[in-house]
Amino acid sequence: MAAGGELQLLGSWYSPYAIRAKVALGLKGLSYEYIEEYLFSKSDLLQKSNPVHRKVPVLIHGGRPVCESLVVVQYVDEAWAGTGPPLLPADAHDRATARFWAAFIDDKFFQAWRQLMRSTTDERRAEAFKNVVPQVETLEQGFRECSKGKKDFFGGDAIGLADIALGSFLVWIRVVDEVSGTKLLDEAKFPGLAAWAERFLAVDAVKEAMPEFERLLEHYKGFLAKLAAPAGYS
Amino acid sequence: MAAGGELQLLGSWYSPYAIRAKVALGLKGLSYEYIEEYLFSKSDLLQKSNPVHRKVPVLIHGGRPVCESLVVVQYVDEAWAGTGPPLLPADAHDRATARFWAAFIDDKFFQAWRQLMRSTTDERRAEAFKNVVPQVETLEQGFRECSKGKKDFFGGDAIGLADIALGSFLVWIRVVDEVSGTKLLDEAKFPGLAAWAERFLAVDAVKEAMPEFERLLEHYKGFLAKLAAPAGYS
Question: What is the pLDDT of residue B233?
Fold first, then answer.
């Protein structure tokens, strides 16, 4: 159990945002109670702990909730500064760079990729895919600058905030690729990111946090079926 | 001049995001060269310094750019940790709370208020206003929790990240109120935020960073006129 009080994580196994919290806690080597939340029957604890968004992840530390995945990752880094590897670099400019890319991933990459993920026809998929590619090009360029062609991760020699932000989508990206017949992180087009993805997925804390491909594929097919149905998700 | 290299800020006088950078630099008592950027003729320096978004603010410190307003505020706090007041609290949970509200302001409040700001008819304004009010209710509740009814600011006794995030919109909110015939931060409905706004605007570093009401009103009327014209802003 972590120093400074009990630790609980409210998550959903397939949520990229909950995966971020799991990876951060795993990298720090922290033990915690994991509580699975269900989209259509959210627990009272979730609703009380995150009344603004009612979304996972919520990290509850000594009874006090921390919400929003990127906020959680930074909280884990700061609350356990002396435990495990740092998740943000020491240098102020490097920290700004990590936050910049984390924001880009949520604001630009995800918004474009979400359209692909929610597409239910080949025509829409082709259109959405075209719109994601420029965001991935920007990320490839960003990775090149962050790693200077020498480092393994956005965060340098080890995983940091921006790696966790993007890496949390990797199994999802592959599952959507599988259904769409695409390969978003194609090694010919994006050699930096393709190699980065392999390195990220090989890290123990990541392996433990990631959903299993086949299970997520089934989940995604179910999601698409509901989306295509008249009374689908909104 | 700041320690550690020359300091330049690329901004636009009316940009709430540039105002955030100005307030942060002002609170820290830092001197810098301010470079005004124009939406329709962005400088080569801006395009080179922020190739991903090509947006203000960009803080250039010792030749290295920092982009994205909330990233800039945190950078200023960290790069000049020993200078002036802290912009984020020392406690990890309080820091998480500040980041949570800053994200809420950009993701939820601004997205709703932007619709009001871009409305060109009374009917659309009434509809948009109705959609902003719940976000302000959440902020009022958040302010009550952050300040515990005792503190002056979201950040406690002094201005912090969340105050700067929301406060940067205050003159804009009043200008849109003026044109719409509304009063968003009504003291009867939102007593906490209404009093907070007065305190925020009375701080020297804020007064120096804020646009003049009449000038911003003219700017906004021009914006609305272009928006209503066939070849308006997109």
Answer: 52
Domain A92-224, CATH among 1.20.1050.10, 3.40.50.450, 1.10.1040.50, 1.10.110.30: 1.20.1050.10
Q: Is the ipTM, as predicted for this complex, more than 0.90? A: yes
The CATH 3.40.30.10 portion of chain B extends over 7-79
Residue B86 forms contact with A (CB below 8 Å): no
CATH code for residues B7-79 = 3.40.30.10
> Does the CB of B100 have a partner CB in chain A at under 8 Å?
yes
Rounded CA separation A121/A98 (Å): 35
Residue A142 in contact with partner chain B when CB distance is under 8 A: yes
pLDDT by residue (tens digit) across A24-66?
Answer: 999 999 999 999 999 889 999 999 999 999 999 999 999 999 9
| Pairing assessment for the beta strands B7-11 and B33-36 based on DSSP bridges | parallel
Closest-CA distance of chain B to residue A61, Å = 9
Residue A5's pLDDT band, with cuts at 50, 70 and 90, is low
Between CA B116 and CA B230 the distance in angstroms is: 20
User: Among partner residues A64, A68, A104, which is closest to B100 by beta-carbon distance?
Assistant: A68
Report d(CA B83, CA B81) in Å as an integer: 6
Q: What is the mean pLDDT of residues A135-163?
A: 93
Tell me the pLDDT tens digit for each residue of A74-113. Answer: 999 999 999 999 999 999 999 999 999 999 999 999 999 9
Tell me the residue type at A74: Q
Q: Residue B110 and residue B112: Cα distance in Å, rounded?
A: 5
Instruction: Provide the 3-class DSSP secondary structure of residue B108.
Output: helix
- The structure tokens listed for A184 are 């978003």
Query: Are residues A79 and B92, on separate chains, in Cβ contact within 8 Å?
Result: yes
The answer to whether A169 and A108 have CB atoms below 8 angstroms apart is no
Find the residue in A nearest to B139 (Cα).
Answer: A52
Residue limits of CATH 1.20.1050.10 in chain A? 92-224
Given B66, B70, B96, which is nearest A66 (Cβ)? B96
